[in-house]
Amino acid sequence: MLVSSDTPALAAHGLFKSYSSGDSRMDILKGIDLTARCGELTLLMGPSGSGKSTLMAVLAGLSRPDRGRVDILGQPTGCLGDDELTAIRLRHCGFIFQSPNLFGALDALDQVRLVLQMTGTPAAEIEARARRALTEVGLADRAHLKPAALSGGEKQRVAIARALVKRPTLLFADEPTSALDRYNGDMVTLILRRIAHLHRAAVLCVTHDSRLIAHADRVVTIEDGRILSDERTGCAPSPDRVSDNAAP
Amino acid sequence: MVSLARQTLVHEWKRFAAAILTLAFSGLLILVQVGLLLGQLDAFTLPVTRARADLWVTAANIRSWDQSTIVPARSEGLFWSHPAIRDVREMAIGYADWKTGNGTRQSVMVVGVPLQPGALAGFQGVPAETLAILSHPDSVVVDAADMDKLGAEVGGTAEIAGKRVTVGGIVHGFRSNLMPLVFASPASLRQIAMDGGTGGPPYFLLKLDPRFDVATVRDQLEAADTADSYAIATPDELTWMSARFWLEESGAGTSFGFSMLLALLVGVGVTGQTLRGAVIASLKEYATLRALGVRVGQLRAIVLEQSLWVALAGNVAMFAIAAALCGVAWFLDIPLVMSLWLCAVTSLFVTAIACVSGLLSLSVLYRSEPADLLR
After folding, report:
1. CB contact under 8 A, A97 and B373
2. Do A117 and B291 touch (CB under 8 A)?
3. What are the chain A neighbours of B10 within 8 Å (beta carbons)?
4. What residue ranges are annotated as transmembrane (chain B) (predicted)?
5. What is the pTM of this model?
6. Which residues of B touch A163 (CB under 8 A)?
7. Residue A34, beta-bridge partner list
8. Per-residue pLDDT tens digits for A30-85
9. Does B339 touch chain A (CB under 8 A)?
10. What is the CATH number of domain A10-103+152-232?
């Protein structure tokens, strides 16, 4: 898809989302405006129940908002069907979840190859790209190991390799360091930052982990379904710095 | 090429072992049961399938080959008058009591083997030396597997319907499930049965000129019988008619149908649950793939591929066990027929069970919602 360099990777306007349970209704998102640009590591922070994971699901096209609009690389997603949304995710999005969710039967290399294979990558490219992705997360020498033989941090790095091997423009990470020790947490953080800065991806990371703030370009704090603050950290160089959103 | 389905099957073989064995035994239930049934049917119709006739003439309106009573003797001339007929022989069977000096008593079927040289002489599987034995007056032969049951020994004597006979030799592969077969010459049989030959024999065997079409000749000979005094059938037709009668009368058909249903239900039940369990165990992993843009259809293909691998493993296990059982059956002289089509149909049955199970387990795939991973 050809987009202008000014087009944000992700733009959300007036997002509302609520869940009903019996007669009660809970408003989770209460009018969120957010823009994410390529080349930035943006943290979405806030207390539990503030709506940050729901926001990420809506932004990534995994869940539909009750109201509001989400554009991915300038394309409105509200009018798209499930298959078209899946195709958008296939082309542009990578995901890293709190748990690595790796298949126990596959070694690290096959975990990454499987994604390429199932997303229609030409067979001749699969092996080299999968190995490159594993090298990028520092696991070139662990490619032959299955999840049972990998540490928690290594498994999360395989999950990152699986997400970045598609060369996504948008990378969504949900609490990627919460189950990791300090060393592995730092390593995952540095990898996310490198993906943003070197690969020019827009990285959105939901986290409680304050260690990440030092490496982020921008920290958006959410509370009670609204953006409370949106701050540049000033600690990480970013060529595409623009002021996007302000707290309501 | 990464095959998630195959690699998961190998990695989690313990999870799939129950399904594979269930499939194997579901298939075996069918395979062995039909094999035994075919063996029984073959044993039931031994004289029909082993005689060298192109056509069998029997009494009219019979439902099983052994029910034939009399074919009018005058019909023989009619058969000879047809240009396709090369040979015509009478054949008879008789039911009698067998008794030996050691006290063994047993009902037997005495089969009169056509001995006169020609295209209809003897039975397939009965060597010329045995036929020579039968040409001795009052000599009979029995199947080796029936020797103990009959209390017989080669060279020994026995009484059939009060007539003394000598067991002149043995044959192999003629063990019937009705009752032991005793082979005799037509003359010996007439003596045993005290049949004066009035009316006609129960069967005529016809040998045709190979240039003529068997079905056409059969139709013409049937049409010539205006009095409806006999029926004509090829050995295959007579065998099939007898088999159907036997299946209905013995209840074996119903019991077989019930077993097949049971095998189907147990197979689908256990295999379905196993495949479903395997999908549920990987729901988060599938949801992650969906988040990355993999379509549900592709995940469905993985589950169905997994059921095919399970079917393949089930088939291998089934045929391995079946081969062992065949060996045991052969050793114990149990009639078990494993034809190629039976193996093919059973293999398809097992594969179908696995595929149906795979389809049933697909419903849980829809629980793999990527958004759930973010809660």
Report:
1. yes
2. no
3. 105
4. 16-38, 308-332, 338-366
5. 0.75
6. 292
7. A12
8. 999 999 999 999 999 999 889 998 999 999 989 999 999 999 988 899 888 888 98
9. no
10. 3.40.50.300
B3 vs A: CB within 8 A: no
Chains A & B: contacts with CB separation below 8 Å: 93
Confidence at residue B198, expressed as pLDDT on a 0 to 100 scale = 67
Q: Where are the domains of chain A?
A: 10-103+152-232
Q: Which residues of A are less than 8 Å from B295 in CB distance?
A: 83, 86
Q: Least CB-CB distance to A114: which of B2, B11, B12? A: B2
Domain ranges of chain B: 4-43+251-374, 47-235
Task: Tell me the pLDDT tens digit for each residue of B256-274.
Answer: 788 888 888 888 888 888 8
Question: Alpha-carbon distance A97 to B289, whole Å?
Answer: 12
CB contact under 8 A, B285 and A102: yes
Asked if A89's CB is within 8 angstroms of B291's CB, the reply is yes
pLDDT digits (tens, 9 = 90+) for A111-164: 999 999 988 889 999 999 999 999 999 999 999 999 999 999 999 999 999 999
Q: Is A114 on the interface with B (CB under 8 A)?
A: yes
| Sign of the four-CA dihedral A58, A61, A65, A69 | positive
Q: How far away is chain B from the Cα of A246, in angstroms, using its nearest Cα? A: 25
Quote the minimal CA–CA distance from B277 to chain A in Å: 15
pLDDT at B323 over 90: yes
Contact between B40 and B177 under an 8 Å Cβ cutoff? The reply is: yes
Q: What is the ipTM of this complex?
A: 0.84
pLDDT per residue as tens digits for the range B113-131? 888 888 888 888 888 888 8
For residues A216-234, average pLDDT: 90
The DSSP line for chain A is ----TTS-SEEEEEEEEEEEETTEEEEEEEEEEEEE-TT-EEEEE--TTSSHHHHHHHHTTSS--SEEEEEETTEE-TT--HHHHHHHHHHHEEEE-SS----TTS-HHHHHHHHHHHTT--HHHHHHHHHHHHHHTT-GGGTT--GGGS-HHHHHHHHHHHHHTT--SEEEEESTTTTS-HHHHHHHHHHHHHHHHHS--EEEEE---GGGGGG-SEEEEEETTEEEEEEE-SSS--TT--------
Quick check: B7 and A60 CB within 8 A?
A: no
Distance (Å) from the alpha carbon of A159 to chain B's nearest alpha carbon = 10
pLDDT tens digits for range A155-209 = 999 999 999 998 899 999 999 988 888 888 888 899 999 999 988 999 999 998 8
- The pLDDT, as a whole number, for residue A240 is 39
Q: What is the pLDDT of residue A244?
A: 38
Over residues B317-343, mean pLDDT: 89
CB contacts, 8 Å: A179 with chain B: none
Nearest to B374 among A57, A83, A105 (CB): A57
